[in-house]
Amino acid sequence: MDFMAAEENKLDKTSVVDSDTLKVRLEEAGKRPPALILLMGPAGVMGKQWPLEKAELTVGRDPTCDIHVDEKSMSKRHALVRVKDDGVFIVDQGSTNGTEFHGQRLDPMKEAKLVDNDTVKLGNVIFKFVSSGIESFAAAHNYDRGTTDGLTGILNKSALLLSLEESFKKSRLTETNLSLIVFDLDHFKKINDTHGHQAGDFVLREVCTVVKNQLIRSGDTFGRYGGEEFVIILYGSPLQRACDVAERIRSTIEKHNFSFGGKTIPVTISLGVACLDSTMASASALFEKADQASYASKRAGRNRVSTL
Q: Which pLDDT score, from 0 to 100, does residue 33 have?
């Protein structure tokens, strides 16, 4: 066999699958509840799924709905999903544009039972119902890949901004506090220049791991805005509580041992905090205020928390 044939033969060999990893994934999939997956709707949330974990879930354009999709063809409270012992049912709530199931418009307030892989159309929005844990797991995995930053494992910029917009609308509607933390790594270019880009990547990943696993609540939203800039959305938190969180993050990162290639890398961050108020007409106004506060921290010497 010549050299090229031998190389082709190597490439054609069947890969060995880690059976333990596969087993864990299958077990995880088996524990997942049924779900609705968005097949057609706003581009930013295509593929998103909502696990059906409550006895009754509201579906609609209102940000307070359990299944919220910001699409004008949907009514604010368009439909209900009821989860019972004998199955999952969809109920139209007298919506303007109706709910279509199997090509027929449902009568308001009458239940229709969903079967695995059924689609249901609410206005111009189409959902797919999956009862299979494996299919739900696969769909969630694919959606996560599209919304996750590849290096750090947190939300990417587009998913982060979408979440901020949704939080802004929900906060306005429910009159709930909404605070934002924006932070940058101090002198990050120096870290790259001194220790190399692999060390820089390590620092970014480690900062995100520490913040995500130790310093914020499970319901808080954490994303990478770009480069070494990060954002935390604290829904339900007033300004003082957000400042306390920011200070805890600052202190923890300063004290954390960032060790790479046998060397310790000193890392600090500069943070800005802002809370939504009546003068802010958009989510971008809230972000701008927090971002400017982070710049104030840099101008004041870095490694500190600022508000404006």
A: 85
pLDDT digits (tens, 9 = 90+) for 167-222: 999 999 899 999 999 999 999 999 999 999 999 999 999 999 999 999 999 889 99
Q: How far from chain centre, in Å, is Cα 4? A: 46
Distances (CA, A) of 67 to 9, 57, 235, 298: 50, 7, 17, 40
pLDDT-derived band at 26 (thresholds 50, 70, 90) equals very low
**Rounded-to-integer distance, Cα 174 and Cα 169, Å:** 9
Euclidean distance between CA atoms 193 and 164, whole angstroms: 33
* Spatial separation of the C-alpha atoms in residues 241 and 220, rounded to whole Å: 13
Q: Tens of pLDDT along 274-304?
A: 999 999 999 999 999 999 999 999 999 999 9
Q: Is 229 annotated in the active site?
A: no
DSSP-assigned letter for residue 212? I
pLDDT band of 22, cuts 50, 70, 90: very low
Instruction: Output the pTM of the full model.
Output: 0.74
Q: Which one is catalytic: 71, 166, 206, 228?
A: 228
Residues 245-250: contacts with CB under 8 Å, at least 24 apart: 245/181, 245/215, 245/216, 246/181, 246/183, 246/271, 246/273, 246/305, 247/305, 248/215, 249/181, 249/183, 249/211, 249/215, 250/183, 250/303, 250/304, 250/305
Tokens 């990943």: give the residue: 205
Which residue matches tokens 């949704």?
166
Tokens, residue 115 = 């079967």
Contacts of residue 56, Cβ cutoff 8 Å, sequence gap at least 6 = 80, 81, 82, 83
Strand 67-68 to 56-60 pairing: parallel
